[in-house]
Amino acid sequence: MADDASARPILVGVDGSPSSLDALRKAAEFAKLLKTPLGVVTAWQYPVGFAGAIPPPSWSPEADAEAIQKEALHAVFPDGLPEGTTTTIAAGPAPGVLIERSKDASMLVLGSRGRGGFIGMLLGSVSAACAEHAHCPVLILR
Q1: pLDDT digits over 47-86, tens only?
Q2: Domains and CATH numbers, the chain
Q3: Are 98 and 108 in contact, with CB atoms under 8 Å apart?
């Protein structure tokens, strides 16, 4: 790595969707070419319907996020993570988590559509919010 700017990771948001797996592959490719670290982030939050309610004790959205990220990493990197890869499971809405973390990234890579939303939309709400508000360049893969 030549300077401080090159040490800033290429950040990728992963939610387990096919689009996010494509983003993970592309982010890893860029990180290797640019000799920068790869940062993999999966955000989680309690569903809106749980506001003020106590969730079932046997269910953990954080554990679900960890499992989703682990499966995604294994699917894309069956022989192990690229050197220098960091993984994060972060509490909070995905757009907010990714936008905040983009302050320390050289690039943010996202899939165009995640797990939810409406079929036929060009961009999902997360990728649209990040494209508008991220603190670094954003690459959205379709």
Answers
A1: 766 556 666 677 889 999 999 999 999 999 999 999 999 9
A2: 7-37+62-113+121-141 (3.40.50.620)
A3: yes
